[in-house]
Write a structure and sequence with these properties.
The structure is a single chain. By secondary structure, the chain is of the alpha+beta class. It is 31% helix and 22% strand. Strands 9-8-12-10-11 form a 5-stranded mixed sheet, covered by helices on one side. The chain has a 3-stranded antiparallel sheet with strand order 4-1-7, with helices on one face. It has a two-stranded antiparallel sheet with strand order 2-3. Helix 1 packs antiparallel against helix 7 (249-271). The two termini are 14 Å apart.
Length: 272
């Protein structure tokens, strides 16, 4: 009898350890990173400017008086505050400041720029538009410097993460890892193999799935995020089971385990 009880207890212990090991493997990211060739191209990370984007553009030169006409809507007191901390809805933490005149891209993809006039941003990345501005301003200023940043690059993160919310990324560049980092990572119930990214670009809504355990995600068009992307992390079956079961189930199982152990000890004493 004693041997049977101890045998049963050993089996339960082994099964428990195996379940924990499998659960641990399910939480690991990029499990096949050594076998994956990184094929991500520059075009994946080169986000084009979209209607509604707020472009912060500051023109500088050795003689700042010369470039004042190109910054005519800006004063040194103009400051944009972006919340880049984890916890997108807590504006008192992690604030960064960006200063400079801002231009909102209209529905036709244009902005009105001082001196130069109407400029088209359609199908251009920030780098492309910066090069164009430098070329045009160089007709008036020797060796100008142009800084361009997106002032309203916002992503939304929902579902099984530790901090859901809207997040503004100050530098206008973010990967799926940056997003999950801002949200404090997935909870233990987050489904790491089936993350949904919803994207609206040029009025068209698209979506894609990302598997955090598969290193091939680095080559996905949804690896580098774009303005307005929404990341949705679904829950695992374990979350559903946990939600349905009695909250005291864990205590019951622990009590049963302790009881089996105690019974085995008592039986061994009677054998003596």
């Amino acid at each position: 009898m004693k041997s049977k009880i101890l045998g049963l207890f050993s089996i339960l212990l082994l099964v428990s350890c195996k379940v924990k090991e499998n659960a641990q493997n399910d939480l690991n990211y990029l499990q096949n990173i050594e076998q994956v060739a990184i094929e991500a191209s520059a075009k994946n990370s080169g986000n084009t400017i979209q209607a509604g984007d707020q472009l912060l553009i500051l023109v500088t030169a050795k003689d700042m008086d010369v470039v004042k006409p190109f910054n005519q809507s800006y004063s040194s007191s103009d400051v944009i505050q972006n919340n880049t901390s984890a916890g997108g809805n807590t504006p008192n933490h992690g604030m960064t400041t960006l200063s400079g005149p801002t231009y909102v891209v209209d529905n036709n993809g244009n902005i009105d720029f001082p001196v130069i006039g109407t400029l088209s941003t359609k199908d251009k990345t920030l780098i492309d538009f910066k090069s164009e501005l430098i070329e045009k301003i160089s007709k008036y200023v020797i060796n100008p410097t142009v800084s361009i940043r997106l002032a309203n690059f916002k992503i939304t993160i929902l579902g099984e993460v530790n901090r859901q919310g809207d997040y503004i990324v100050a530098n206008g560049q973010a990967t799926i890892w940056n997003a999950l980092g801002l949200a404090g990572d997935l909870t233990m119930y987050g489904k790491r193999t089936d993350i949904l990214v919803v994207r609206t670009e040029n009025g068209t809504v698209t979506h894609g799935k990302i598997n955090l355990q598969d290193a091939n995600l680095i080559n996905s068009p949804f690896y580098n995020l774009k303005q307005g992307d929404a990341i949705i992390v679904p829950s695992t079956k374990a979350k559903e089971i946990t939600a349905r079961q009695n909250p005291n189930t864990g205590l019951y199982l622990t009590a049963i385990s302790i009881g089996i152990t105690a019974l085995a000890v008592v039986m061994s004493l009677f054998k003596k």
